[in-house]
Each structure stands twice: as structure tokens, then as C-alpha cells.
Amino acid sequence: MDEKIAGLVVKAQSGFFTVRTDRGNIICQLRGRLKKRRVATDIAAVGDRVMVLPAADGIGAIEEILPRSRVLSRSSPAAGGRRSYTKGETEQVIVANPEQAVFIFACAEPEPHLRMLDRFLVVAERSKIPAVVCANKVDLVEEDEPEKKFGIYRKVGYPVIFTSAKSGAGVDQLRALLRGKLSVLSGPSGVGKSSLLNAVQPGLGLAISHVSQLHQKGRHTTVAPELIELVEGGFVADTPGLRAISFFDIDPEELDAYFPEIRPLVDQCSFGDCTHENTPGCAVKRGVEEGKISPERYDSFLRLRRGET
Ligand SMILES: Nc1nc2c(ncn2[C@@H]2O[C@H](COP(=O)(O)OP(=O)(O)OP(=O)(O)O)[C@@H](O)[C@H]2O)c(=O)[nH]1
Ligand SMILES: [Mg+2]
Ligand SMILES: [Zn+2]
Predict the structure, then answer these.
(1) For 10-37, how does the pLDDT look when each residue is reduced to its tens digit (9 = 90+)?
(2) Beta-carbon contacts of residue 208 (< 8 Å; ≥ 6 apart)
(3) pTM summary value
(4) Cα-trace Rg, the chain
(5) pLDDT by residue (tens digit) across 40-75?
(6) Which domains does the chain have, with CATH numbers?
(7) Cβ proximity of 149 and 297 under 8 Å
(8) Ligand 1 neighbourhood includes 266 CB (under 6 angstroms)
(9) Using a 6 Å cutoff on CB, does residue 215 contact ligand 1?
(10) Which phi and psi angles does 52 have, rounded to 5°?
(11) Ligand 1 pocket residue status of 200, Cβ below 6 Å
(12) Nearest CA to ligand 1 atom 27
């Protein structure tokens, strides 16, 4: 009888899991009793630390999934993933145990939709995942454009980097950020996530799309998250582009806690249940007037609070 060994799920597809162990990669399926457990979350996902029983021939078994430190997740599209704030939905785990999330947006092609970035950042805050903002395709815009668009995020406290997979600008900085950690790259489709990883680690050969194909709806070049091992240490998950990440389990009332520049002001509002909209004595509204909170972020906050997409 073989011993159970520890491993990391690096790929999950159609019930088969590729688990990286000291003895190399082992393809596994879930042990039957794990499948029977009724849970509102994916039982195993990329990034999970597991115990596996290798088989002498063929498919090994995942015997145990170790507790997760945190997850990057969204409500399952099957359960109506676009709805916000609904409890009791099925959680779709994008990556388990990420130590950081790098949210990639393009400076152009496609135009950055910053309301969406704000949504991603809320999910990261809620899940206690340190977030980095990466503005890619700087080669396509005027030199001062990236700072104009993305500078507000540095003011909020997020590290912001500017990159171009095409010219190589900022790629060293991204590589340094990824070193030694389990990171997840996320962002809309076509912003250059896979291209950037190919630049960070030449020879990786991740499939990338041609801009002409991007406008065909529903086409994603990267189809399933996969953990890539970095030669300098660490893992990074390239994920399929997300059109709209849906909140999992977030109430409108708790949203102010997930905007780092709003969070410290909430206690100073005159009313404990302040909506921060047009309430008298609202410290958040005052923060906007005093320039502590950018009007764009405030607008995002109000929209998200109202459940707008
Ligand atoms: N000009 C320019 N084009 C880029 C840059 N990075 C990526 N591209 C192009 O943008 C297109 C999309 O790149 P991908 O790397 O496939 O984008 P992705 O984010 O992985 O897309 P999905 O896998 O669909 O989520 C390709 O045509 C790339 O050549 C860049 O820095 N500058
Ligand atoms: Mg891709
Ligand atoms: Zn208020």
C-alpha cells in the first residue's frame, strides 16, 4: 500500500486534477467520499494543497483537501453569476490560497473599464487578498496617459505598475512582484495577461489571441485557470478573462469596508447606518469634497452599493 503524499493542484479540468508533488505531476480524481460532501463551494480547485494516494498505474486519488487560507471566487455563473448580493449561491473558486492578485487592464484595446477594476478590488479586499494593479499596453498610449488613468489607485494604497508585453517595459518589475509567491492574474479578456506571462517567462508559450478575434463574443483564449511554476520560484495562475466578476456573499452595508480610502472615515459619519449618499454629517461625502476620495471611486462605490453592474 502506498503512502499519501502532499501536493498542489495546478490544473483542474472536468473532474481531473493535475497535482504537483515531489514525485512529479500526478493526475488524480477526487476520492468518492469527498464528492458526497455537500458544500456551497468547489471541492477542489487550482491552488489547493491536497493529500493524494498515487496509483501504481493510472489515476491517483485526492484523499484530503487541506484548509484554505483564502480564495479568489465568484458566484457560479450556473447559479446566476451576474446577480449581486445574493446569499446562498454556489461559490466558484477561481484560485485557492492566492497570496496576491494582479489585476491587469489595458491602457487601450480594450479601453480600461475602471468600474470593473473597482469591482475586482472589492472582491480582493473582501477575500483579504493583497492586490496589485497592472496597466498593460502602455505602448499604445501617450506617455502620461497610464498615470492619469491609474494613478488614483496608487493614492488608495495599491501598488500600480505599468507594462507592455510588446516593448518589454515594466516586465522586470512584474517578474519581481511574482517571485516566490502564489499569484493570480485576472482581468478582462484581451488585456494581455497571457502575453505578459510569456514575457515574464520566455518559452512558456501560452496561447494568445489576435486582436481581430477579440471582438467575437464569448471567445476566450485562455479557457481554464492553470498554475504555472516560475523558474525564479513561485506560481502564477493565468485565468480566463472575466467579463463581470460577481460578488460572492457581499452585502451593500459592508461595501464601505472594502474601499480602503472610505473605510477609515466611516466611523466619523453622524449616523451609524450612513449610506454615504446624501446623508447629513457624512464623513465620506466630506472626504470626497476634501479630495481624500476620488470622485470616480466614490461613484463606483455608490453604484456597487446600489447593485448596479
Ligand atoms: N500593443 C500591445 N499589444 C499587446 C500587449 N500585450 C498583449 N497584446 C496583444 O493583445 C492581444 C490579447 O493578448 P492575450 O495575451 O491573449 O490577452 P489575455 O488577457 O490573455 O486574453 P484572454 O486569455 O482571452 O483572457 C494579443 O493580440 C496580444 O498580442 C501590449 O503590451 N501591447
Ligand atoms: Mg489569456
Ligand atoms: Zn457616511
Answers:
(1) 998 888 999 999 999 999 999 877 776 6
(2) 192, 194, 195, 198, 221
(3) 0.89
(4) 21
(5) 667 889 999 999 999 887 899 999 999 999 998 876
(6) 5-65 (2.40.50.140), 71-238 (3.40.50.300), 252-305 (1.10.40.50)
(7) no
(8) no
(9) no
(10) -125, 150
(11) no
(12) 210
